[in-house]
Amino acid sequence: MAPLRWAIVSAGTISHDFACAVSTLPATDHQLVAVGARGLENARKFAELHGIPRFYEGYEPIAKDPEVDVVYVGTVNNAHYEVSRMMLEAGKHVLCEKPLCVNRGQARALLDFARERGLFCMEAIWSRFFPSYIHLRDRIARGDLGRIERVEVQFGFPLTHVERVRMKSLGGGTVLDLGVYTIQVAMWAFQAEPVKIDAAGQLNDEGVDVGITAKLHFP
């Protein structure tokens, strides 16, 4: 079976981490074949660092590259929908960095489109694949822990200095950047969507949430 041929969209820190992760996998299964960035020089440096044969300025060349099977989207949050949609329209499978989109409407439209095209599209919640998650999921399924009544999750560290997190125009905010981890682990534990949400938090001058406390009620 031929290896999956990966392309990376954006040459930032998270894309670097993804490229390093792929490099640990057998080349017979996964190969990095292209990278696209807003600046050609950034793409070139990234390709050179990770041994990627092709690099492009912009993202459209990735969509048009016939030797790309699946695309990792590591752009800033507000570009996730547009770039992922572009790749799906070109017949590429998509692994998009979290958050998948900046609102439910975009996420639903993107997933519906992928299903219509018969393409893989997933949000890159990497923690779902940790051995500890798999072990805990098995224990819950076996009933070792009884009925799950309460899940408490805390996660946070200083990010207010990071432009993409503090600016509304870039899809910033605590919930979209870190809160996705806490929300998804609660939904994962209960295997359900919350029926009610109580939340309170603080906003910065941009109107972006910099801290939040939430209670999710499950059926």
UniProtKB/TrEMBL annotation:
<dbReference type="GO" id="GO:0047115">
    <property type="term" value="F:trans-1,2-dihydrobenzene-1,2-diol dehydrogenase activity"/>
</dbReference>
<dbReference type="Pfam" id="PF22725">
    <property type="entry name" value="GFO_IDH_MocA_C3"/>
</dbReference>
<protein>
    <recommendedName>
        <fullName>Trans-1,2-dihydrobenzene-1,2-diol dehydrogenase</fullName>
        <ecNumber>1.1.1.179</ecNumber>
        <ecNumber>1.3.1.20</ecNumber>
    </recommendedName>
</protein>
<dbReference type="InterPro" id="IPR036291">
    <property type="entry name" value="NAD(P)-bd_dom_sf"/>
</dbReference>
<dbReference type="InterPro" id="IPR055170">
    <property type="entry name" value="GFO_IDH_MocA-like_dom"/>
</dbReference>
<dbReference type="InterPro" id="IPR050984">
    <property type="entry name" value="Gfo/Idh/MocA_domain"/>
</dbReference>
<comment type="similarity">
    <text>Belongs to the Gfo/Idh/MocA family.</text>
</comment>
<dbReference type="GO" id="GO:0000166">
    <property type="term" value="F:nucleotide binding"/>
</dbReference>
<feature type="domain" description="Gfo/Idh/MocA-like oxidoreductase N-terminal">
    <location>
        <begin position="4"/>
        <end position="122"/>
    </location>
</feature>
<keyword id="KW-0560">Oxidoreductase</keyword>
<dbReference type="GO" id="GO:0047837">
    <property type="term" value="F:D-xylose 1-dehydrogenase (NADP+) activity"/>
</dbReference>
<feature type="domain" description="GFO/IDH/MocA-like oxidoreductase">
    <location>
        <begin position="134"/>
        <end position="219"/>
    </location>
</feature>
<dbReference type="InterPro" id="IPR000683">
    <property type="entry name" value="Gfo/Idh/MocA-like_OxRdtase_N"/>
</dbReference>
<dbReference type="Pfam" id="PF01408">
    <property type="entry name" value="GFO_IDH_MocA"/>
</dbReference>
